[in-house]
């Protein structure tokens, strides 16, 4: 599948000395795959890894995206407090990055909750 091809490619890139650049992207893709397969614990863990990796290596835009996706994951699973937490962090990170449209989009979602 296309997802498996992408997972393999990101894994290869991460293994050949670019873990700092690709590790969190790999974790986020794994999280999305686990989410789509209803593997809740693995998805939650992979979102956390993606967030930590992006933060560690100062990829603020990708940290924001990982937080947003983690928030959507928790919203889907009925964990409203966790969803609000991650979406709130995503909104702040998008603001720090200067992505005004994303700030508005995530803000609107938070208001609907």
Notable traits:
single chain; 113 residues; mainly alpha; 88% helix
Protein topology:
Layout lengths: L1 H35 L3 H17 L3 H17 L3 H18 L2 H13 L1
TL;DR of this structure?
88% of the residues lie in helices and 0% in strands. It has 113 residues and is mainly α.
Elements, N to C (H/E): HHHHH
Annotation, overall tally of beta strands = 0
**General form:** globular
Secondary-structure-derived class = mainly alpha
Largest sheet: none
Distance between the termini: 35 Å
User: What percentage of the residues does DSSP assign to strands (E)?
Assistant: under 5%
Fraction of helical residues:
over 70%
The average pLDDT value, as a whole number, equals 94
Give the number of helices.
Answer: 5
* Uncertain stretches of 5 or more adjacent residues: none
**How many whole angstroms does the radius of gyration measure?**
14 Å
How would you describe the overall organization of this protein?
There is one protein chain. This protein has 113 residues and is an all-alpha fold. The protein is built from five helices and no strands. Helix 1 (2-36) packs across helix 3 and helix 4 (80-97) packs antiparallel against helix 5. The longest helix is centred in the N-terminal third of the chain and has 35 residues, at 2-36. The mean pLDDT is 94.
